[in-house]
């Protein structure tokens, strides 16, 4: 387990990294403004705008890297002693391909407007895939790329590098693991479909993407589409005005929570 100083460093870096990511769109704009100044011969101003953009983009990448703990595979998956995360209580050895993971945390900068505008308790979801060697991979669309549009916006990541295992440096509030009522081979096919989406670098994160858009994804749309590919609908909407407006266009993590099957683990 990481030392207290490591957790403090990672927590501070994650916080600053999140703030830097908020500035990335302004950095892109700064690049365009700098190019305009350079074109008209205003090199000093161009240099200042280029400098700001470079600091934001490089800072975001570095801080995000520091704030994402590079841990080993979960114990029991990589030759260690235990299957259970000491930080969250998740049993990695009980995870099966196609299991659906949901989480709610205090760290997510999108939490306020996601939970209020979309009326959802859980703010992130993903699908698990177990490798032949026993390792567990999480397939997700977290939208954390810096600069935007990078290949990690829709990605595969070891379970041990996610909040479900690390507790997000103390920021994770609530989590649950669901298992849709399908044969194991069908659930594995759904995970394989999600993996294919993650492996295609043409696919990027877009929280406003429609269900029909084949190249723009957000977390719950990825899980929904994975199970749509095997003929199972994990979306069950809450009969409230918000969900009635979103019906047919957007699927929330709580929609997946209601339709994603039996709870097999929870905090």
Low-confidence stretches: 65-73, 75-81
Helical element count?
A: 8
Biggest β-sheet strands, sense, barrel: 6 strands, antiparallel
Distance between the termini: 20 Å
The SSE order reads: HHEHEEEHEHEEHHHE
Helix content: 40-55%
Number of strands: 8
CATH architecture of the largest domain: Alpha-Beta Complex
For this structure, the CATH topology of the largest domain is endopeptidase fold (from Nostoc punctiforme)
Mean pLDDT reading: 79
Q: What would CATH call the class of the largest domain?
A: Alpha Beta
Radius of gyration: 20 Å
β-strand amount? 5-15%
> How would you describe the shape?
elongated
Q: Could you name the CATH homologous superfamily of the largest domain?
A: endopeptidase domain like (from Nostoc punctiforme)
Strand order of the largest sheet: 4-3-2-1-5-8
Number of domains: 2
Structural class: alpha+beta
Explain this structure to me?
- This protein is an alpha+beta fold and 267 residues long.
- The chain has 8 helices and 8 strands, in the order ααβαβββαβαββαααβ.
- Strands 4-3-2-1-5-8 form a 6-stranded antiparallel β-sheet. A two-stranded parallel sheet has the order 6-7.
- Helix 1 packs antiparallel against helix 2.
- The radius of gyration is 20 Å and the shape is elongated.
- It starts with a helix and ends with a strand.
């Amino acid at each position: 387990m990481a030392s207290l100083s490591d957790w403090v460093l990672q927590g501070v870096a994650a916080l600053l990294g999140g703030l830097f990511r908020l500035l990335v769109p302004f950095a892109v704009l700064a690049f365009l403004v700098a190019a305009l100044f350079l074109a008209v011969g205003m090199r000093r101003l161009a240099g200042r705008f280029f400098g700001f953009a470079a600091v934001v983009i490089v800072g975001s990448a570095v801080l995000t890297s520091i704030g994402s703990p590079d841990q080993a595979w979960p114990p029991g998956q990589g030759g260690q002693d235990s299957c259970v995360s000491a930080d969250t209580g998740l049993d990695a050895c009980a995870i099966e391909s196609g299991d659906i993971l949901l989480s709610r945390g205090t760290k997510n900068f999108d939490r306020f407007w996601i939970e209020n505008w979309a009326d959802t308790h859980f703010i992130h979801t993903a699908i698990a895939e177990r490798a032949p060697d026993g390792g567990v991979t999480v397939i997700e669309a977290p939208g954390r790329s810096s600069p935007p549009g990078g290949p990690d916006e829709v990605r595969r990541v070891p379970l041990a590098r996610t909040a479900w295992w690390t507790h997000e440096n103390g920021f994770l509030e609530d989590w649950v693991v669901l298992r849709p009522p399908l044969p194991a081979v069908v659930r594995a096919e759904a995970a394989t479909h999600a993996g294919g989406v993650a492996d295609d670098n043409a696919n990027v994160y877009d929280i406003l993407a429609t269900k029909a858009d084949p190249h723009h994804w957000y977390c719950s749309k990825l899980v929904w589409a994975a199970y749509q590919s095997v003929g199972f609908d994990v979306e069950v909407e809450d009969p409230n005005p918000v969900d009635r407006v979103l019906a047919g266009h957007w699927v929330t993590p709580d929609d997946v929570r209601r339709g994603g099957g039996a709870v097999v683990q929870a905090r």
